[in-house]
Specification:
The chain is an alpha/beta fold. The chain has two domains: about 240 residues, 3-Deoxy-D-manno-octulosonic-acid transferase, N-terminal domain (Rossmann fold, 3-Layer(aba) Sandwich); about 180 residues, Glycogen Phosphorylase B (Rossmann fold), CATH 3.40.50. Helix content is about 45%, strand content about 15%. The strands form two sheets. Strands 9-10-8-7-11-12-13 form a seven-stranded parallel sheet, with helices on both faces. Strands 3-2-1-4-5-6 form a six-stranded parallel sheet. The two termini are about 30 Å apart.
Length: about 450
């Protein structure tokens, strides 16, 4: 163990007595489920299923979305396999039943009726005793971490128990790589935990190798292999009838400080298009009331999906989970958020896969290769100001030939890369030892 890892371990243990109060505060703010706080301390009321168990950790919504298409393929390849899927956020927990079509209440339980092979738990915080409790209970036969989850105590415990581990869809931004380099040999030590690393891109592979990662598998991004976002077709038709012939654009996965710019762009575009409608979907649905209040203050009486209100005004706040597929199909094109503010951007492939032109701000570090590819293909446009975004919206409505060409280019670029999915599934199945704990 490196000196930095030792310091981290001691600091985490020292902080442990104060963390339950911090978790309770998060629960009061809606960032944790009160009934499931024990899981963050490694406790569970659910039994370990018999047979081989693969533990997959996907921190938040983006990581969870990328891994969900893998789950049924794992079952196809190993019908007796159970999967323990952990996340760190409640939004990711809500996404799982919404995307997989399970009737479940994630606020109360991680069980999915009709899918006994899949269990969701919240990941324990990086406290040695809590991680030990988690691993003692679940006894996973193998572990996989999605994108960039490098928690020192967690990975040290996995290595100490000789649990085969993989880092899949691995991503490392230039900023993160620079931070890890300042930590000395810690990154090399942590990356050495993994017997398999599947990088998202050649650039990610180079950065990981520069930190001393073991030999890397061929690059490939699971986000390319994701199916189109789902939609309730009857609901789409109903809402399309409500909207009528009014032109609609979408601002998706927006962050604080970004909605103001989106609404400014909407106001500017409406000077040329008075009947223009905006579907505004904040990244975190619990912010819906605040976003609607902001729209009201800026002169747009907004309605909210979560309040049962339809798109009857100029701005409709889509503050529900798992309905971006609905929004993108109702709109002519989409601005993808987290990009006009320095958040690294959200996934632009989702609207592109549905044939919708895309607008992106300058901050797309988390999806740099995808964003660059979409721009190069003519499927996405860079916008740096509300005025530029307004110009893009006006063109979206008034230039149907360009809109169709951009949409087709995006759909072609985002066509599923089945090989990425196959390689990921095969790599994970190879991790499972022939003799399992059961």
């Amino acid at each position: 163990m490196t000196a930095v890892a030792t310091i981290w371990r001691l600091a985490a243990a020292a902080a442990a007595p104060a963390l339950p109060a911090w978790l309770a505060l998060r629960a009061a703010r809606g960032k944790e489920f009160p009934a499931r706080l024990g899981e963050r301390r490694g406790r569970s009321t659910l039994p370990r299923p018999p047979g081989p168990l693969l533990w997959i950790h996907a921190a938040s919504v983006g990581e969870t979305q990328s891994i969900l298409p893998v789950l049924p393929r794992l079952r196809d390849g190993s019908p007796d396999l159970a999967v323990l899927l952990t996340t760190a956020t409640v939004t990711a927990a809500r996404l799982i039943p919404a995307r997989l079509g399970f009737a479940a209440d994630p606020a109360r339980s991680g069980i999915f009726p009709g899918a006994p092979w899949l269990i969701h738990q919240f990941a324990p915080l990086d406290v040695p005793a809590w991680i030990a409790r988690f691993l003692d209970h679940w006894r996973p036969d193998a572990a996989a971490f999605v994108e960039s989850e490098l928690w020192p105590n967690l990975l040290a415990a996995v290595a100490a128990r000789r649990i085969p581990a993989a880092l899949i869809n691995a991503r490392l931004s230039p900023r993160s790589a620079a931070r890890w380099r300042r930590a000395g040999s810690l990154a090399t030590h942590l990356l050495g935990t993994f017997s398999i690393i599947l990088p998202q891109s050649a650039a990610d592979a180079a950065r990981l190798a520069g930190l001393g990662a073991p030999p890397l598998a061929p690059a490939g991004n699971l986000k390319f292999a994701a199916p189109p976002l789902p939609v309730d077709e009857a609901e789409r038709a109903r809402l399309a009838a409500v909207l009528g012939s009014a032109p609609v654009w979408v601002a998706a996965s927006t962050h604080p400080g970004e909605e103001e710019r989106v609404l400014e762009a909407h106001a500017l575009a409406r000077q040329a298009l008075p009947d223009l409608r905006l579907i505004l979907a904040p990244r975190h649905p619990e912010r819906g009331a605040g976003v609607a209040g902001l729209a009201h203050r800026l002169g747009f009486p907004a309605t909210r999906r979560s309040a049962g209100e339809g798109p009857v005004g100029s701005v409709w706040v889509l503050d529900t989970l798992g309905e971006l597929g609905l929004a993108y199909r109702l709109g002519l094109g989409a601005f993808v958020g987290g990009s006009l503010v320095a958040k690294g951007g959200q996934n632009p492939l989702e609207p592109a896969r549905l044939g919708r032109p895309v607008a992106l701000g300058p901050h797309t570090e988390h999806f740099a290769e995808i964003a660059a590819g979409l721009v190069s293909a003519g499927a996405a446009s860079r916008v740096h100001t509300p005025g530029a975004l307004a110009d893009w919206v006006v063109r979206l409505v008034r230039d149907p030939a360009w809109r169709e060409a951009a949409g087709k280019a995006g759909a072609a670029f985002a066509a599923p890369h089945q090989g990425v999915l196959d390689r990921t599934v095969q790599a994970l199945l190879r991790l499972i030892p022939r003799e399992t704990k059961g």
